Amino acid sequence: MKKLLALFLFVVASVPALASAETKIGIINFSEVMAKVPQKDAINQKLKKEFSGRENELKRLGEEIETARTEYINNVTTMSESQATEKKRAIQQKMSDFQLKEAAFKEDVEKRSREEQVKLGNQIRAAVESVAKKGSFNILLDRQSAPYIDSSVPDVTDQVLAELSK
């Protein structure tokens, strides 16, 4: 009990010291930064280029399956039972292969997208730190995290975007 009382007294005694320290606070609109970050388009182009070959291959396989299904439907009445079964199994095998390739493709795209988002997040974090140090800010808050922000609190969103453009 004595330890708890001592801790409480220490906290109460140090509050005025913390309050008297000069604290510079700024705000940043992270939603705006994420929407306007210049690297976003470059990342999207990079990923599109990286996966375009596999995407085209999936489209081609899908078209092949659709052609085979249409052909099967149109000709099933003229085929023997064994031919129809063979064609149907071949189409099912192609569809199964397509689904596996499509799932792997989506997984790979999501993985690479997350990797690029982590890199972008690190760049944004570095830009925010740079702006904070240059402006001697102790705290930068996200505009949406605070229910009220006085208009006198400086907004550094444009400075962060400028830092990211370098």
Structure in a nutshell:
This protein has helices at residues 2-20, 30-36, 39-75, 81-134, 157-165, and strands spanning 25-28, 139-142.
The number of distinct helices, counting runs of at least 4 residues, comes to 5
* Helical/strand content category: mainly alpha
Q: Percent of residues in helical segments?
A: over 70%
Query: Rg to the nearest angstrom?
Result: 30 Å
Order of strands across the biggest sheet? 1-2
- How far apart the termini lie comes to 57 Å
Strand percentage lies at under 5%
The counted number of beta strands is 2
User: N-to-C SSE series?
Assistant: HEHHHEH
**Overall shape:** rod-shaped
Give a quick account of the main beta sheet: strands, pairing sense, barrel closure: 2 strands, parallel
Average pLDDT:
88
**Low-pLDDT sequence parts:** 1-15
Please tell me about this protein's structure.
This protein is mainly alpha-helical and 166 residues long. Helices cover 76% and strands 5% of the residues. The protein has five helices and two strands, in the order αβαααβα. The protein has helices at residues 2-20, 30-36, 39-75, 81-134, 157-165, and strands at 25-28, 139-142. The chain has a two-stranded parallel ribbon with strand order 1-2. The protein is rod-shaped.
Sequence-ordered SSE layout with sheet pairings:
Blueprint: H1 2-20, E1 25-28, H2 30-36, H3 39-75, H4 81-134, E2 139-142, H5 157-165
Parallel strand pairs: 1-2
Helix pairs in contact: 2-5, 3-4, 4-5
